[in-house]
Amino acid sequence: MLPHAPVSVIIPTLASAQRAAPLQRAIGSIRLASREAVPILVVVNGPHFDPALCQWLLSQPDVRFQYQSEPSSPLAVWRGRQAVHTAFFATLDDDDELLPGTLDARAACLTHNDALDLVIDNGFRHRQGADHLWQSDLSCVSQAPLQALMAFNWLSSCNALYRSSSVGEAYFENPPPFAEWTWLAFRLGMDRRRIGTLNTPGFRCHDTSGSLSKSSAYQQALIPLLDRMLACQPPAEIARQLQRKRGAAWHDASVLAWQAGRRREAFSCHAHSLLHPGGLRYLSYTRHLLR
Length: 291
Description:
Strand content: 15-25%
Distance between the termini: 71 Å
Largest sheet: 9 strands, mixed
Structural class: alpha/beta
CATH architecture of the largest domain: Alpha-Beta Complex
Mean pLDDT: 93
Number of strands: 9
Number of domains: 2
Number of helices: 12
CATH class of the largest domain: Alpha Beta
């Protein structure tokens, strides 16, 4: 029997029948991502689980099965984090996968540099049957995490390994309903957590047409999230960029309201967008609302 790795992996899942094949693929990829046995913390959340799939999970010797009644992936990750008893931990969505050797490479980076609190790596987004490199270079994240976050969200459910002693349960407590990885990246940056980067691909993220990030609910949740970030009193330049993003979010909310036939709401959201830094770029949209 292989020795246990200093790593555990959290997978939140609805465990529905439609997720069976992707979930089994995700678990299989974890087994290939380390030469040692990795505890896999699967947190089934919500009532729409497939009993046969849950029985399969319970039969796997390396799977630690947990259940919560509320269908919330962020809360499931928090519950999984509470069950971590290894030096390092990672997370993985049930429809994504780790590439062979990924966990060993990430763990080696943290083991050889005690100053790092987490390490992130590059990876592939899989669309229309082909892999596309996610980012060209991640080195800017180590140098200025918050500034890099204003350009792109460098943290996801599948690209990081965390040092358990540095990234505790509190980081996953009270998560937003959407964009929880953006919020976590922001908090890590605000707390000056030290981040290592590996530009070698370590994961494959499957682009799903029905994902939450493409929903109107996700878009509408961005404004409260940006308010939450601004309430943390970030540095002035970061606050200014967050205000610009807030204006863009109000504009997007106006477009969504207009498309849904909610004209009064569309005008109100548009007025909010104009009051933010850079809001004048949306002024021409007024003519669209008046037509």
